[in-house]
Amino acid sequence: MIVCAGFNVGEKTIRTMIEEKGLKTHQEVGACLKAGTHCGSCVPEIKMLLKKAATTLNW
Ligand code: FES
Fold first, then answer.
1. Confidence band (pLDDT; 50, 70, 90) for 58?
2. Looking at ligand 1, which atom is closest to the CA of residue 38?
3. Is 22 in the pocket of ligand 1 (CB under 6 A)?
4. What's the Cα-to-Cα distance from 39 to each of 3, 10, 34, rounded to whole Å?
5. Between these two residues, 57 and 48, which has the higher pLDDT value?
6. Mutation test of ligand 1: which of 33, 42, 48 has the most ligand atoms closer than 8 Å to its C-beta?
7. pLDDT tens sequence across 4-56
8. Of 7, 9, 40, 47, which one has the greatest count of Cβ atoms within 10 A?
9. What's the confidence (pLDDT) of residue 34?
10. Cβ of 56: how many Cβ atoms within 10 Å?
11. Would you tell me how many other CB atoms lie within 10 Å of the CB of residue 42?
């Protein structure tokens, strides 16, 4: 599923990056994948993924 339409970044890609690099903020996701750095409409969704990952990974 595509989260960031502007940069064509999917949920799985973001999720993998969060886990591998230990990303905690949507700014960090943006720095790695560009997702969320253009129109910003996907930022809430990225935040949600971060929250989900934090819960699952017990950060
Ligand atoms: S959809 Fe992600 S920055 Fe616009």
1. confident
2. 3
3. no
4. 12, 16, 11
5. 48
6. 42
7. 999 999 999 999 999 999 999 999 999 999 999 999 999 999 999 999 999 99
8. 9
9. 98
10. 11
11. 24
- CB of 44 shorter than 6 A to ligand 1: no
Q: Where are the domains of the chain?
A: 2-57
Give the sign of the dihedral formed by CA 11, CA 17, CA 22, CA 23: negative
Ligand 1 touching residue 3 (CB < 6 A):
no
Give the ligand 1 atom nearest the CA of 36.
3
pLDDT band of residue 57 (cuts 50, 70, 90) is confident
Query: Collapsing DSSP states into helix, strand and coil, what is residue 9?
Result: strand
2-57 to CATH, choices 3.40.50.720, 1.20.1260.10, 1.10.10.1100, 1.10.260.40: 1.10.10.1100
